[in-house]
Design goal:
By secondary structure, the protein is α+β, with helices and mostly antiparallel strands. It has a domain at about 1-115: Gcn5-related N-acetyltransferase (GNAT) (Aminopeptidase, 3-Layer(aba) Sandwich), CATH 3.40.630.30. The chain is about 35% helix and about 35% strand. It is built from five helices and seven strands; from the N terminus they run αβααβββαβαββ. Strands 1-2-3-4-5-7-6 form a seven-stranded mixed beta sheet, with helices on both faces. The longest helix is centred in the middle third of the chain and has 15 residues, at about 95-110. It is globular, with a radius of gyration of 17 Å. The relative contact order is 0.13.
Amino acid sequence: MLHRAAAYNVSANPGILAPAIRDMRQADVACIAALEREAYDFPWTPGIFRDCLLAGYTSLVLEHHRAIRAYAVMSVAAGEAHLLNLCVAVDSRREGHGRRLLETVLERASLAGAGRMHLEVRPSNDAALALYLASGFERIGIRRRYYRARTGSEDAVLLARALERRPRRR
């Protein structure tokens, strides 16, 4: 009986015990912008997140213990996906949230018919680079002076990964 009650509580209240991934909502933007400010020296503004939602980009959050712990934003067009932002709350890193969210984003890209995903990452972001390379991404180039940095600018490492196209069944 206890097992069923515990399972019911998890499914009735996603994100309390087990991490749960769901679509981002406009009501999430203030929380997400706060996490973004903690994580980055040059964060996206709340307006950028609102615009991504209005544009229909795939925007997801990972909730755990009733709080948003990670989020991702991806665009898909012309058979290609572009991961625009993936961030894990500073106090929730190294818990597998980034990997879970990336796997979901990759699945969503495949279901949307994308054959390839692209992204940019700072070369100084060792954790992100390790995650992406371990997830099958390959280095395909460098964008010089792409990111703002305290010292002026920082290059971006361009990464890409082939995807298995799995359009949604109707």
